[in-house]
Design goal:
This protein is 66% helix and 2% strand. With 166 residues, it is mainly alpha-helical.
Length: 166
Amino acid sequence: MVITNSYPITGLPTGFKVIGRGYAGPMPVPVIIMIVCYVIGFIVLKYTKYGRSAYAIGGNIDAARISGLPVERNKVLIYILCGVTAAMAGIILASRMFSGQPSAGTGLELDAIAACVIGGTSTTGGKGRSAVFTTDCAPQWAPPEFCNWSNYNKLFQNIAGWLMKY
């Protein structure tokens, strides 16, 4: 906001729209990106040594350290993955709006926290299942997103979101 003086960044290449607004057949490109990330995350967390160590570190960092896990290295990798996924979300959002809006994510913090908690992530660490997201969390955010993709009025998006969350 300081660099752009709170003005949006415009003049992006038209091909950039495909990431946030494009379709591959009947499916929006952001949905495809989400599914690919979900599948990769599920496989990594469930079937790799790194995934098991991530759960161990989240559950009890001291026990993980005593067990001989490379805690510091894995924590750095976890933060890197978090940053990469946040950057991907920012790119998709900027592509959907076809500009870089300084305040685009304002107000979405509570939705992000609610998605994590409803999706099965433990606030005390070490527990969480990605499969729960599909059954519990996604149905609550899908109707407002459908309204958004279908170019319904913002009021209908809010109503759909409120109805599904309560």
